[in-house]
Write a structure and sequence with these properties.
alpha/beta; Enolase-like, domain 1; 2 domains; 7-stranded parallel sheet; 4-stranded antiparallel sheet; 15 strands; about 35% helix
Length: about 375
């Protein structure tokens, strides 16, 4: 695969409404897009790093630097990249920076799918033609406002409601929601807001019949999650702690969780995401696809990933309109009345990039020329 050029862009896109978690409020997204041009084709990737290094050690600005100074030049100089799966070995000298790596690697998978004339989901090994969808609902200004949001999302057909939580925004919230909707699939996500001394409080979550409690303790922990899981009937789902296949195997072996959330950026791209998926499936641990407030481009990659066999639980891959008034892809991602997204079955992502809108939203741009062109 001859690399003709790599273009990195930063876009500023306002969210339809603020999204609050235990570590802050996001109102606008600074999104990094990677465009890789090769032999008349264009592959796209999105970096899911946040504006600040709160969810992970990466941020919009660190990812930009790493792609421009390290990953981009490595790819531009490479002579033996034929598949997306070649990227982890190519980038191995760069430690961590998984979200930056994923943005570049995923663009190569996109190129490969186009070159082979197959959908991205089929190239990855996907077997499902539609995926079940849930929603992640941020912390609201009041419980009454939360109830209004849940009512709206259930009316839209979503199959699972996930509530962001933290100490002080948990027990009363769960109780009110369960009283009103006793039969819905309900889960919560703490984003590491609790500590082991909160174990008694977390044990009380059991009475709300939650599908899972996601990442309640430290973002880099297996051991204390294992201790906590032994005290709970509710399944723990690990998110931030799972960075690669080895982490998934360790967490399963230590019984730190019963469910795993796979995020493309967090694990470093499609190659590692597939490896985590396969390791979990071999051990009977279900997985689902989490979201990072991606644009439609990143959302299209999540859709393709979630078509793999072991993605058996509704993920956070929801409609474009929940987040952006005007998305950068066409058609926009939509969800059926049954709470499902249909997997595109055309070569590549299945969604076209609106390059005119991308250019309009771009606030920073840099081109990395392939050395062979010099």
């Amino acid at each position: 695969m001859r690399i003709d050029g790599i273009i990195l862009r930063e876009l500023h896109i306002p969210l339809v409404r603020p999204f609050e978690t235990s570590f802050g409020v996001t109102r606008d997204r600074r999104i990094l897009l990677v465009e890789v041009r090769s032999e008349g084709l264009t592959g796209w990737g999105e970096c899911t790093a946040g504006e600040r290094p709160y969810f992970s050690g990466e941020s919009t600005d660190t990812a930009w630097q790493v792609i421009v100074n390290e990953l981009g030049p490595m790819l531009a100089a490479a002579e033996d990249v034929e598949h997306g799966g070649d990227c982890p070995n190519l980038f191995k000298r760069v430690r961590e920076n998984r979200m930056a790596k994923a943005a570049v690697e995923n663009a190569i998978w996109d190129l490969e799918a186009q070159r082979e004339g197959v959908s991205l989901s089929r190239l990855l090994g996907g077997v499902q033609d539609r995926i079940p969808c849930g929603v992640s609902i941020g912390i609201q200004s009041s419980i009454s406002e939360l109830m209004n949001v849940i009512e709206r999302e259930l009316a839209a057909g979503y199959q699972r409601i996930k509530l962001k939580c933290k100490p002080g925004w948990d027990l009363e919230v769960f109780e009110r929601v369960r009283d009103r909707w006793p039969g819905i699939m309900l889960s919560c996500d703490a984003n590491s807001a609790y500590r082991l001394h909160d174990a008694e409080r977390i044990r009380s979550f059991d009475r709300f019949d939650l599908l899972m409690v996601e990442q309640p303790l430290w973002h880099d922990d297996f051991f204390y999650h294992s201790m906590l899981q032994r005290q709970l009937k509710t399944a723990i789902c690990l998110d931030e702690s799972i960075r690669n296949r080895r982490d998934a195997l360790a967490a399963i072996e230590m019984e730190s969780c019963r469910i795993i959330n796979i995020k493309l950026g967090r694990v470093g791209g499609f190659s590692e995401a597939i490896a985590v998926h396969n390791a979990a499936m071999e051990r009977g641990t279900p997985v689902w696809c989490g979201g990072m407030l991606e644009s439609g481009l990143g959302r299209s990659h999540n859709i393709a990933l979630a078509s793999l066999e072991n993605f058996t639980l509704p993920g956070d891959v929801s409609a474009s309109a929940r987040y952006f008034a005007d998305d950068i892809i066409e058609p926009e991602v939509t969800v059926t009345s049954k709470g499902e997204i249909e997997i595109p079955d055309i070569p590549g992502r299945g969604y076209e990039v609106r390059t005119d809108l991308v250019e309009q939203l771009t606030v920073r741009k840099e081109t990395i020329r392939a050395f062979a062109m010099a």
